[in-house]
Each structure stands twice: as structure tokens, then as C-alpha cells.
Write a structure and sequence with these properties.
Distance between the termini: 55 Å
Number of strands: 48
Length: about 900
């Protein structure tokens, strides 16, 4: 009797999950030729029950309970594969079929996009069987080549810039509120822990975790147990933005007591890689600690940051490059035998996250993250008070102006730090021995942000083929913005006066303020933003069709709070204190329809229609001085569609897409110093805030990407992107400065002008050879076309050719043909680039070692302009015509050129 009661008690106390049947899940790992991949490593997320495929590529997991699972299959010389699947109550055995690993192009070859911020990514995919072949079939050839071959030359797929991309950590968006862009330096150097996103969707494809934007979504899950159990050590040597990189990563896997730890750290440092006077010293750290309380509940703490100290390089006019060469940088000069750069960016914005993972019932998951990010982003520059501009490339110092010869310019082509100190030293005191302020100072523009986030994600399976996702996000931003004195350069103090406006006080509430090192000066204000977002998406699978729909709505409120009361009379009442609240409501819908022709051929349509609230930089035209709103600022309206044919064969993988996108009501702000005056448009010896409001753009084009297996070890990879990105209307142009206030210049005649910042057409063809002896070599030829100069909107208005104060009186000599010549948008020459990479890996028992090298721009082509802009100074016909007729313009476009031949070598050890 006692034994019977004991058995009854035992079964009563057992968790409910034990009543469910246990399932064996199995699969075969093969290469592209269908041959078994021996000793492939299979990592089951949130478990230490990892497997190794046997000689025929077979592996299995036994006694899996009902639930949702994710495995990562890795093997040296092959691309990793991430696969999701579900185990249901009635399954005793589940066959995942054949998992095909593609030959690797060398993911450890390093990175080729800006500042080591790119990651070697894989598609996360979905658990749904009808489209699992499409969604987890490996890296898309077009996206891979776009990032690692063409991306090295500032190519942007579909013309979409960083403003329209989303990177999400545990549900928290990493886009900045000031300009909407992603600052990759917040996690730069953490390649090991950001190598494989949990979800990676391209372009307007709907995401499970956020509504997304135009440029796709990359979602990182930093759960400690999701990282493969191993230790990794790596060293890299390069000549790009730094010279050396050290990186170490450790992942413990999930212990029997439910603990998992992942830690990573790196350092990148070096100077004068290619561009003169550029140096960097950047650290990075990452820590993730998870406690698993049960099969249904875990909590994870994540912290990461990347304290970075980095010098900048200057854009220059063509005249300067012709004299000094393409490696010239005007931002630095010699001081005490060392190079000192005046433009230093020092940023450290650590992130702390606490994530709760909860399994709800049989088919639902609820994940909640709270995060807090704090830190500062400081950018230095030289400032001067009643003194000459210290910039070596100031237009009066250029040989074209006539005061200096080319040799004389070369002799003083860098910042003269000794002169700046001496100028301050001889002005230390007045005649009565009272102290005087600085003529020259080094100042920093600082953003100190405090950002709180709450992100909640709920997903459930309403049936075997129907999934529902609900995402809610709240964000509060407190942004402190100010300028401070970094270095007095030997002076007693700095004046808090505006030398460009009759020495008006920047803050009349604190007259005669003497600014010391570390003190605020010139401007100080706070921006506050509260943002609420709700996103609901659903996915339904059928045998031949897959449907995804996503909707969202958001509300935001923003305001400015100024610390200084301006000494300029017209701004006294609009500079200090809290502004009115600017609120915005957004909404949108996305949809995706997939038709599965068969297991290898698919047709996919994506569509999106949504609004996008203006960023803080777009809302306030000049927040440093006043709380005025930008004239005409509105929510952008975005309409985007694409249609693709996709083939996933054993011999040929191909995607052919066409897309059409419109953006309406965009606002673009340009801020620049102008140190000249014009009789027609007033004084420009000040900071100009130029706003172009109500701009409409159209992005139209086609994409082709293919990967064809020529032999079992030789593949050809090709990409073609043919686009046309242009403005389709004549938006209004306004300017604001602290001398003239607002001025309206009317419509900018920019219809059919091209969107700048990226080649509009790009082509790449590459070959890669992967030996069965674990070495590989590859090369690609890349051709870039239709790169355009960014224009000044002010110079495209009627103010260029009409007499001030009139609307119908034109300057003498004005003709339509001459106006066309003066305002034509510059198109840069087409360019050819050649890249190559190679590597080898070694296996010594449980130790795996690899070495790789990649070289970009092998031919050392220095003629490719990666970016540039017109100087917005000459907005009247006489000045513009005189400038146009000069053999060498005073105010030619400022340009950046490609750095030429660059390399990245990497060696790693993993065990």
C-alpha cells in the first residue's frame, strides 16, 4: 500500500511536461555536391547537448520535449547554417531532412565596410515547413556581395541609407533619435557575438520583432545560452582605419544548474594606416549572463560598450588634392614632434539590458526587455575669437586665391599648433594687466544621452500553420547637448561671446562669463522624446502559399529645453526654457506573399506603406539657439514594392528582383559655417541652417544575384544592380541663422536631380575556389556607375538669378542656358575595382585554427570619389558666374576619395 501511494505521489509531483511524449529529431549534413559532411558540429540553442555528425553526416537529438528549437550547424571551410523547427506532442520522430552546407568564401577574412562595423551574417529564418527551404537556405548572393565586395565602396542597395535601416538588440532599436541613423561604433569590435543575427530580413520584408523600415532588420538575441560553447582568440592586422585588432570570446554553454555565460572583449588601435594624421584607439566589451529557472523561464543580463577614441580626416577641394595628394588631411599638425589632430571623436555609450524569457502554455512565448543606455559622444574642433581662420585650406590661403604659391601652401598645409599657442600667449593680458580671453581654443560638441527602453514581444501559434506576433515598445530619451572648452591652448579663459554677431552674449543671464577648460560655452540645451510603438504581425502557411502581414502605429512627443537666454534681441524669448511639445502619430502596413512553385523555385512579393515622423534634427531647425520648428516639417510618407523570382538549386542559386519606392514630404537639413558676405543675400559669417522641406524622391530599379557551381569546388558569383534614384518635385528652401533669422528662398529647381551618396548602378563578378583540404581563394571584379555630387539646395533657387527684393527682375546676362550650366549636378566617372581573398583552416583535435587575408582595390585606383558636397556659399548670379568662370574655383566641391589598396589579415584559434 505504501509503495502504491509513493508511486501516485511521484507522478502527481512530476512537471506537466513529463507527461508529453519525448521526440527524437534527426538529420543529415551534406555539402553542395551531396556528399556527407563528417564531424559537422550541431549546437542546440539553450542547451549543452551539442552533437557532432558522424561519418555519413548523421546526427540526432533524443528526448526533446514539445517546443520551438534552433540549431546552428558549423564546419570549418563551410558557411554556418541556422535552422528553426518545432516539436509537437504527437511526434515520436522528426526528420529535418538534409541540411546542406555551402562552401565558405572566408567569413574570417575580416570586414570591408566602414570601421569594422559590418558582421558576417546568416538568415535566421522561420520554423514553418512550407518555406523553410527558402528562408534558411543560406546567405543570399546579392546581399553578401553588396556587403562585402561593393559595400567597401559605399554602395547602398536600392539607394537606401543608414537612416532607413533597423538594428535591434533583444527588441530594443539602436537607431539614434537625433538623426535616425545607427551608430555602429556602439558595438564596434564585437564581431564574435554579433556574427550571426537571430533574424535578418532584407529591404521591406516584414520582421517578427519590429515593423522595420526600408533597409531591412537585423535582430540580435544576446541570450548567453544561444552562443556556441567555445573559446575564441583572434588577431588582425590591417591598414584601413586602424592597424591592429585583438579579440577574445568565451562561451560556457548551459550548465546543469541552468547558468550560461558569454564574454567578449577586443581592442583596435593604430595610427596613419593610409590617411595622414588619422589614428584610433578603441576598446570593446560584452557580457551576457543567463539563469535558466526551468524549461519555461529564463532571465538574461547583457552589458556591452565600445569606448572609442578616433581622429577624423577632412574632405578637400580638387585643388587641394592636386597639390597635396589623395592622402592629405587638413585636420592635423605637428606639436612637440607628434601629430595632433583637431577633430577627435570620443564616444562611449554603454548599454545594459535585462531580458525575461517566458514560455506561456504550449505554443506561446513572451519576452520582455528593459534597457538603459547612458554615455556621451564628443567631437572636437578648433574655435577662434576675433582671429583668422586656422584651417590650412581656408580659401584665402589656397594658391588659386593668389596670395600663396603652391610651394608656399605646401609649407603651411597643416595646422600650426605653435602659432595658436603663441597667439594666445601674446594676448594673455591687457595694457592694465587684466586678463584677456583666448584667441584660439579647442572645443567639443557633446551629446550626453540617457535612454530608457521597454520592449515586449509575444508570439503564439494559433494553429500549426498560423503564427501571431505582438510587439510593444516604449522609449524615453533625455539628451543633453552643449559645447565645452576642451583645451584653452595656453590662454586664461574663453569668452562666451558671438564674434560673428557684434560680440552678442550667448547667455545674457550670466554676463562676463569666463569659460575655463571643461566648462560649457556658446550653447546648452536638452531634448526630450517619448515614443510609444505597437506592432502586430501574422504569418499563415499553406502548401503552395505563404502570407505575412504586419501593421504598426506609434506616437511620439518631443520638446526642447534651453539653458541659455540668447543675447540677440529677436531670440531672447525663444531661447531659454521649455518649448512647445511637437507630437507625431505614425502608422503603416507591410505585406509579403510567397508562392512556392516547387521546393526550389519561389515568387515573392513585398509591399509597404507607412509614415515616418521627423527626427529631432529635422524638427528643430537650430536648437543650439532657439526652439523654432523647421518650416514645412512633416511626417514622411513611404510607399515601396518589390517582386522577386528566387531559385535555390544545387547547381544554381539566383534571385531577380524589381523594386519601386517613393518617399514624400522629406525634410533635409544642412548645417555649415559660411565665412563670406554677399550684397544680395546678406551676411553669411555665421552658422547657416539650410532646410529643404517637402522633398519627394523616387527609387526605381532591378537586382540580380546568382551563385553557380561550375565544378564541385569552383563557384561563380555575380551581382547586378541597376537603379535610378532621383528627386521628383521642387521643394521649398529656407535658411536660418542668428543674424538674419528665417529667410525663405522659394522652390529649389531640383526635379530630376539624382540622390547622392551611392553609385546608382553596380556590377560584380567573382570566382571562389574551396579545396577539400580546407583552403580557399577568391577574387571579384567590381564596376560602379552613376555616382553624383550632393548639391546645395540654396544654390538651386530663384535667389541665384533674381535681384534681391524683386520677383521678376533678373541680373544682367541671365539666360536659361547659363543657369543650367551654373546649377548642373556633377556626375563622377565610372570606376573599376578588383578585390581578392584567401585563407586556410586547420584542425588539431578540438582546436581549430584559421588564417585569412582580403585585399580591396588591388589596382590602387585613387580616382573613385566615395562622397562629396557642394559648398553652399554663392547664392547670387554675379558671384556664381565669376566662380564658374575661374580656372580653379575658390569654393569647389568638398570631396572624399577612396583610400586605395587596403588589406585585412586575420588569424584565429578556437577550442
Amino acid at each position: 500500500m505504501i509503495k502504491k501511494l509513493s508511486l501516485i505521489s511521484l507522478f502527481t509531483l512530476l512537471p506537466a511536461s513529463y507527461y508529453f511524449a519525448q521526440t527524437t529529431v534527426y538529420a543529415y549534413v551534406k555539402d553542395q555536391d551531396g556528399k556527407p559532411v563528417e564531424r559537422a558540429e550541431v549546437d542546440l540553442a539553450e542547451s549543452d547537448d551539442d552533437k557532432t555528425a558522424d561519418k555519413i553526416g548523421y546526427f540526432q537529438f533524443v528526448d526533446l520535449k514539445p517546443g520551438h528549437y534552433l540549431i546552428t550547424v558549423t564546419k570549418s571551410s563551410y558557411e554556418s547554417k541556422i535552422l528553426e523547427f518545432d516539436v509537437t506532442n504527437d511526434e515520436k520522430r522528426k526528420d529535418l531532412g538534409v541540411i546542406t552546407l555551402n562552401y565558405s568564401v572566408g567569413s574570417d577574412a575580416g570586414v570591408v565596410v566602414i570601421d569594422d562595423s559590418a558582421n558576417d551574417t546568416e538568415d535566421g529564418g522561420s520554423a514553418m515547413q512550407p518555406t523553410v527551404g527558402l528562408l534558411s537556405s543560406g546567405r543570399d548572393a546579392f546581399q553578401n556581395v553588396s556587403a562585402f565586395e561593393l559595400g567597401a565602396y559605399w554602395f547602398r542597395p536600392r539607394g537606401v541609407d543608414n537612416r532607413f535601416e533597423d538594428v535591434v538588440f533583444n527588441g530594443v532599436s539602436m537607431s539614434k533619435n537625433d538623426d535616425g541613423r545607427i551608430d555602429f561604433s556602439n558595438w564596434g569590435g564585437l564581431n564574435d557575438v554579433t556574427r550571426y543575427p537571430y533574424e535578418n530580413v532584407d529591404n521591406i520584408t516584414p520582421s517578427e520583432y519590429t515593423f522595420g523600415n526600408l533597409g531591412g532588420v537585423v535582430y540580435y538575441n544576446t541570450r548567453a545560452s544561444s552562443y556556441r560553447k567555445q573559446t575564441s582568440l583572434a588577431y588582425s592586422f590591417t591598414n584601413r582605419s586602424y592597424l591592429h585588432r585583438l579579440m577574445a570570446t568565451y562561451s560556457s554553454g548551459l550548465s546543469k544548474k541552468g547558468w550560461a555565460f558569454t564574454f567578449s572583449a577586443s581592442r583596435r588601435w593604430g595610427d596613419n594606416a593610409i590617411i595622414d594624421g588619422v589614428y584610433q584607439d578603441a576598446y570593446a566589451y560584452f557580457g551576457s549572463i543567463e539563469k535558466k529557472f526551468s524549461d519555461r523561464h529564463s532571465i538574461n543580463l547583457t552589458a556591452f560598450g565600445s569606448p572609442t577614441y578616433r581622429a577624423s580626416n577632412s574632405p578637400n577641394t580638387q585643388e587641394v588634392y592636386d597639390i597635396m595628394g589623395k592622402d592629405y588631411n587638413s585636420y592635423w599638425g605637428w606639436q612637440d614632434g607628434e601629430k595632433r589632430n583637431s577633430r577627435i571623436r570620443k564616444v562611449f555609450e554603454p548599454m545594459f539590458m535585462l531580458t525575461d524569457y517566458l514560455k506561456v502554455g504550449k505554443n506561446s512565448n513572451w519576452t520582455n526587455t528593459v534597457s538603459y543606455q547612458i554615455g556621451s559622444d564628443a567631437r572636437s574642433r578648433l574655435d577662434w575669437f576675433h582671429a583668422s581662420d586656422p584651417n590650412p585650406t581656408y580659401y584665402r590661403k589656397l594658391p588659386s586665391y593668389g596670395l600663396l604659391t603652391a610651394d608656399e601652401f605646401r609649407a603651411q598645409s597643416q595646422i600650426d599648433w605653435d602659432y595658436l599657442y603663441n597667439a594666445n600667449r601674446i594676448n594673455l593680458t591687457n595694457m592694465d594687466d587684466s586678463k584677456r580671453g583666448a584667441s584660439y581654443t579647442l572645443v567639443e560638441d557633446v551629446n550626453k544621452d540617457k535612454t530608457f527602453n521597454l520592449a515586449s514581444h509575444f508570439d503564439t501559434r494559433l494553429s500549426d500553420n498560423w503564427k501571431l506576433n505582438i510587439n510593444f515598445n516604449y522609449q524615453n530619451l533625455q539628451s543633453d547637448n552643449f559645447r565645452r572648452v576642451k583645451d584653452l591652448l595656453g590662454a586664461n579663459y574663453a569668452y562666451n561671446l558671438n564674434p560673428f554677431n557684434n560680440d552678442a552674449q550667448y547667455n545674457i543671464d550670466d554676463p562676463n562669463y569666463q569659460v575655463k577648460e571643461g566648462n560649457r560655452t556658446q550653447y546648452s540645451y536638452q531634448l526630450t522624446k517619448n515614443h510609444y510603438t505597437l506592432n502586430i504581425s501574422t504569418e499563415v502557411d499553406f502548401a503552395k502559399w505563404n502570407f505575412v502581414a504586419s501593421i504598426f502605429s506609434s506616437y511620439s512627443e518631443s520638446y526642447r529645453n534651453g539653458d541659455y537666454r540668447s543675447g540677440i534681441a529677436q531670440f531672447v524669448n525663444n531661447s531659454k526654457g521649455k518649448s512647445a511639445v511637437y507630437d507625431a502619430i505614425d502608422a503603416g502596413i507591410k505585406g509579403k506573399i510567397t508562392y512556392k512553385i516547387n521546393g526550389k523555385n519561389f515568387i515573392v512579393y513585398n509591399g509597404a506603406f507607412f509614415s515616418l515622423a521627423p527626427t529631432l534634427n529635422e524638427i528643430f531647425i537650430n536648437p543650439r539657439v532657439v526652439d523654432y520648428l523647421t518650416p514645412g516639417v512633416k511626417n514622411q510618407i513611404i510607399n515601396s514594392n518589390d517582386l522577386s523570382y528566387i531559385m535555390r538549386g544545387q547547381i544554381l542559386k539566383l534571385r531577380l528582383s524589381g523594386y519601386y519606392t517613393t518617399i514624400s514630404n522629406s525634410t533635409e537639413i544642412s548645417r555649415y559655417y559660411a565665412a563670406a558676405s554677399s550684397t544680395s543675400t546678406g551676411s553669411y559669417n555665421t552658422l547657416i541652417n539650410e532646410a529643404m522641406s517637402g522633398a519627394d524622391k523616387r527609387y526605381l530599379g532591378a537586382e540580380l544575384g546568382f551563385d553557380v557551381k561550375i565544378t564541385p569546388t569552383l563557384n561563380a558569383v555575380g551581382v547586378a544592380s541597376i537603379g535610378e534614384y532621383k528627386f521628383t518635385n521642387t521643394p521649398q528652401v529656407y535658411s536660418f541663422d542668428d543674424q538674419n533669422g528665417f529667410r525663405s528662398f522659394g522652390a529649389a529647381n531640383i526635379k530630376d536631380y539624382k540622390v547622392a551618396g551611392t553609385p546608382q548602378k553596380a556590377f560584380s563578378l567573382g570566382l571562389r575556389y574551396n579545396s577539400s583540404r580546407y583552403w580557399w581563394v577568391g577574387a571579384s571584379a567590381n564596376y560602379l556607375m552613376d555616382q553624383y555630387l550632393d548639391f546645395s539646395a540654396l544654390n538651386k533657387t530663384a535667389a541665384l538669378y533674381t535681384v534681391p527684393g524683386t520677383t521678376d527682375m533678373y541680373y544682367d546676362g541671365v539666360t536659361p542656358e547659363l543657369i543650367q550650366q551654373l546649377t548642373a549636378q556633377k556626375k563622377f566617372d565610372d570606376q573599376f575595382m578588383l578585390n581578392a581573398n584567401a585563407g586556410k583552416s586547420f584542425q588539431f583535435g578540438k582546436y581549430r585554427m584559421g588564417i585569412s587575408i582580403s585585399v580591396n582595390n588591388i589596382l590602387n585606383n585613387r580616382d573613385y570619389v566615395t562622397g562629396g558636397f557642394e559648398q553652399g556659399r554663392l547664392a547670387n548670379f554675379p558671384d556664381a558666374l565669376e566662380e564658374y568662370q575661374r580656372a580653379t574655383p575658390y569654393f569647389g566641391p568638398k570631396l572624399w576619395y577612396d583610400r586605395g589598396r587596403t588589406f585585412f589579415t586575420n588569424v584565429y584559434l578556437r577550442f
